[in-house]
Amino acid sequence: MGRVDCDVLVVGGGIVGLSTAHALSRLAPGTRVVVLEKEAGPARHQTGRNSGVIHSGIYYRPGSLKARFAVRGAAEMVKFCAEHGIAHEVTGKLIVATERAELPRLHALVQRGRENGIPVRELGPAQIAEYEPEVRGLAAIRVGTTGIVDYGRVAAQLAEASGAEIVYGGAVDLVSRRPSAVAVRTTAGLVVRARVLVNCAGLQCDRIARLAGDDPGMRIIPFRGEYYDLARPDLVRGLVYPVPDPAFPFLGVHLTRGIGGVHVGPNAVPALAREGYDRGAVRPRDVASELAWPGSWRLAARHWRYGAGEIHRSLSKQAFTRAVRRLLPAVTEADLVPAAAGVRAQAVLRDGTLVDDFLIRDAPRTVHVLNAPSPAATASLPIGREIARRALTTLRAS
Questions:
Q1: pTM here?
Q2: How far apart are CA 236 and CA 257, in angstroms?
Q3: Burial class (CB in 10 A: 0-12, 13-18, 19+), 373
Q4: Is the dihedral of CA 224, 230, 236, 237 positive or negative?
């Protein structure tokens, strides 16, 4: 197919990779950037298959990359969408406690929100009804800075505005790193020679790291998030979330009034394929990778009860409906219409720890983005600048 030379090569055409290319063009005009995406277009995986929420940053540990980048990124995302005519809305959301045991965790979220500089309002049952007449709870908090957007459209706009050469339709199958450059080959026969490689491959990021000769110290364990559409969207005015379990980076089954209709979900079910959007999808290579990683077994041993509950809700629509009814008692099984699923690329360490923050690591002539699940779409503009700065530091030193 040929050969291309460039300054920075970005592997992965999701929103993080495209934001990185966009940031490079702003921070260092004239930098030659190539983006390789194995699919036929951008945002075909995590970016284009999420619930479209602009997260406020309330959940994340103060000082963490997630907290800093989500708070900053939410404001920047709203501004970016306004500047480029991308449909979006700052709706606000409710986080609702339905059991007394959840009240201390709800109060802790209030404190965390304030530490992260996010305005929150505490609500009692009557005030919940003012915002969401069909939602029931003992208490709630309202987070005004949460919004909604189509991240696929954002990614397409970033691609257009980046000035990068974007090559679709070939997966990276070889990386050769030399002291002076990095050469990458794709399954389509293209060879790209770059001074710096940026790995934004999402669900495949650990494999790209190993192709480059680096030990990432983690594995991607895929979790399928299954969604329903609400057949009676008038039951929900905005966004309604349960109080999350702080032991997990998942937010629980929630209700999201998006750009078109109301989405319900997702759950978090271990997937048998990294791109296993269908329940029956099984890829032996991916299963073998999961089983060979000690962290998978340690994760399962530590959190099997939580996992069993998620699998039960996946297999039983009745159980899924019960989870929704905790927040929205009026919903019935008939109200839930199956919708397209997503897969979360979750990094797991050797000891079974779920990586809770964004994970970005530098290597010779390389920047690896090894954990960037939600809220990475919200935080994509500041994440892209951070990655671009690291890449430019390496570029200028070479």
A1: 0.95
A2: 7
A3: buried
A4: positive
